[in-house]
Structure formats: structure tokens, C-alpha cells
Amino acid sequence: MRYIDGPAVECDLHLTADPARVWELVTNIELPPRFSPELRRVRWLDGTRGPTLGARFEGHNQHPALGEWRTISHIVRLDEPRVFGWVVLDPDNRFGGGPADPGNPGAAWQYRLTAEGDGCRLTHSVRIGPGRTGLSVVIDQAPENEEQIIERRLAALREAMTATLQGIRDLAEQPR
To answer: What is residue 164's three-state secondary structure?
Structure first.
């Protein structure tokens, strides 16, 4: 797989929880930093206090190979209580992609909830690119290893996304 192909990961998990509670958790943008090894903190922008189509939020990330960086995300899909999706931009041009453009994001993330039996299935997915990201920088340093670099990144994302799904499940299945 090459970067130009839009590498992607999708993970899912069954939750024996009320889908409304799961929706509340997945749309709480301040929750993922509790489970992520990379995302440190998140906050709504422009006076927004919750998810709405077009709303923006700022994220702060840290990775041993790339240091720290900031992102701006735009909510591009919101179909309550089924789909919550956003694109991630590099507002500071940290990775050399030029001006931040929601039509050319560094990644597109999504949660999808599907009613299932005694709860719901929660799917978490990401597609990298087409805009430049930290992964682009690493590939630039060793283009002959692009496929292996992407495989390692997808494996790390899969692990982090699975941990996030499990964390959401643990919270959703707790009595309130």
C-alpha cells in the first residue's frame, strides 16, 4: 500500500449498552485523549459546545518520532445517532502540505453505530490522506520503505483505535 492509495483502518466492537449512551460518548471530543497514546487534548473552537455539522475543534498531538503538533478538525458527517465523522487539517503547515483545506485533509475519521441485539456495534475508522501528515514526513526520509512505514502506522492506529473502542465500551456499559 502506498500513501497515494489512502491507507485505512477500521475496527469494531459490540457493546451491550444503550446506543444513546454510546452516541453521547463518541461525540464527546474530550474523551479520546484518555485512551490515545498520541492525542493529548482537544477543545471546541468558535464557541461551539457540542457536535454540529461544520463545527471545528482543535487537537494537540505528540509522537516520539515527530514531536508535538496541532490539528484543526471539521465535522463533515453528523447523522445522529449513527455517524460522526470529521476531517483533520494541519493548520500550521507543520508537514508541508500548504494551506489547510477541508477538501484535502490529512485524515478522515469516523464513528458509526449500528443497532445490534442487546446493544450496538461501534465501528471506528480512519483514512489517511490525501493531504500531508507526519506519515508523509517519515516516508520522505525513506521512500524505498514506504509500504513498511505505512504498515507500521496502520498497525499502531489499529492498536490505538481498539483501545479507544474498549475504553468507550467500558464507560458505556457501566451503570449510570
So the answer is: helix
Contact 32, 164 (CB under 8 A): yes
Cell of 160: 490505538
What pTM does this model have?
0.95
With contact defined as beta carbons under 8 Å apart, do 35 and 163 qualify?
Answer: yes
10-37 per-position pLDDT tens digit: 999 999 999 999 999 999 999 999 999 9
User: Which residue stretches of the chain are H helix?
Assistant: 19-26, 134-141, 146-172
**Alpha helices (H) along 43-111:** none
CA distance 57 to 61: 13
Q: Which three cell numbers stand for residue 167?
A: 475504553
48, 56 contact by CB (below 8 A): yes
DSSP codes joined into one string, 22-53: HHHHHT-TTSGGGT-SSEEEEEE-TT--S--T
Amino acid identity of 14?
A: H
Please give the Cα distance from 111 to 88 (Å, whole number).
14
pLDDT tens per residue across span 66-83: 899 999 999 999 999 999
- Torsion over CA: 114, 10, 96, 134 (sign): positive
Q: Is the pLDDT reported for residue 176 higher than 80?
A: no
Q: How far apart are the first and last CA of the chain?
A: 44
